[in-house]
Write a structure and sequence with these properties.
Elongation Factor Tu (Ef-tu), domain 3, alpha+beta, single chain, 18% helix, 9-stranded mixed beta sheet, 318 residues, 6 helices
Length: 318
């Protein structure tokens, strides 16, 4: 739990509880609320209820929410945040607000102009295929890659079926969309990854966590690497500056950690979140939570991310 007491660092809250009626429109409404009442360069923390329904399992789209938010408010390009969950099974999601339990809600914590925010994005996936073109996709369901059944293409790179008899993934795999120049060599930091949440063997399709890939996109199959995940946590977090540039003093570090990075899901021998907490460079107050999707700036624009850890540092100027 974190409490903001000083007015010069305390955020104002804007909220909509309309996600059940459409994530894109809810994003537009939230963006208009922030635009009409706050400075365009304010630091914003965006939080939302991840779960639309459990039977059948459907999730709110961070991509659509963020698209609407960015369309209305210029400052949204540097937004950070995440999707809220009750457990690793994606059973439910809710927000306590003004003495009530809110479902299908999204909120923006808008900080005063004296507050700045910086992010470190921690990765955990490496490409294990060449570039493949998405040739048929509907929403989050990819039917063909390079004109062939997507599931067949994915399983050619694996040593066992992707899913069990109940269509649940038997392993953690993602598809990565490389930002910037497609044909230049890149690093794990250059990818926006989407977790494969299920597959349909009859249709030969795979379904992603977010519906934001598109026909013509060039993607690569990405495999979780627990060793890389732990190494990044140790090395990048330990190197975080104790003070930001310009004499800014950190007052909160917030770790938005993909639920799939927990040891029960990732297969890591230790909890990656424990590593982050242990190597933090100072005693700035620290809060963390497991998320469905992480939101952070990448290549000049905020994106929804999968399988990442986003360490956000909020600082006061002066």
């Amino acid at each position: 739990m974190v409490a903001f007491l000083a007015p010069e660092i305390s955020p104002k809250l804007q909220c909509v509880d309309l996600l059940a009626h459409g994530d894109l429109e809810a994003g537009h409404q939230l963006g208009r609320l922030v635009r009409d009442q706050h400075a365009s360069d304010a630091a914003v923390l965006l939080l939302y209820d991840s779960v639309l329904s459990f039977q059948p399992r459907r999730l709110h789209s961070a991509g659509h929410l963020l698209q609407g938010f960015q369309a209305e408010w210029p400052g949204a390009m540097a937004t950070m945040g995440g999707g809220l969950l009750t457990d690793l099974n994606l059973t439910d999601g809710w927000i306590l607000l003004n003495g009530e339990v809110k479902r299908h809600a999204a909120l923006a914590l808008v900080f005063p102009r004296s507050v700045t925010a910086d992010a470190i994005i921690l990765r955990a996936a490496r490409p294990i295929s060449s570039l493949m073109r998405v040739t048929h996709i509907v929403g989050a369901e990819i039917f063909t890659l390079d004109g062939r059944r997507a599931l067949d293409v994915v399983e050619e790179h694996l040593d066992a079926p992707l899913t069990d008899t109940a269509s649940h993934p038997s392993r953690i795999m993602t598809l990565g969309l490389k930002l910037g120049e497609q044909w230049e060599s890149g690093t794990p930091d250059d990818y926006v990854n989407r977790l494969i949440v299920t597959a349909d063997r009859e249709k030969g399709s795979v379904t992603l966590f977010e519906p934001d890939f598109y026909e013509g996109a060039l993607v690569q199959l990405m495999q979780n690497d627990p060793a890389m995940m732990l190494d990044m946590a140790r090395n990048r977090v330990a190197a975080a500056p104790m003070r930001c540039e310009g004499g800014r003093q950190p007052f909160l570090r917030l770790y938005i950690d993909c639920a799939g990075r927990a040891s029960a899901m990732s297969g890591a021998l230790v909890e990656e979140a424990d590593v982050v907490a242990e190597v933090l460079p100072d005693d700035t107050p620290f809060l963390g939570f497991y998320s469905g999707v992480e939101i952070a700036p990448l290549c000049g624009r905020s994106h929804p991310l999968d399988w990442t850890g986003v360490l956000a540092t909020y600082s006061r100027v002066g």
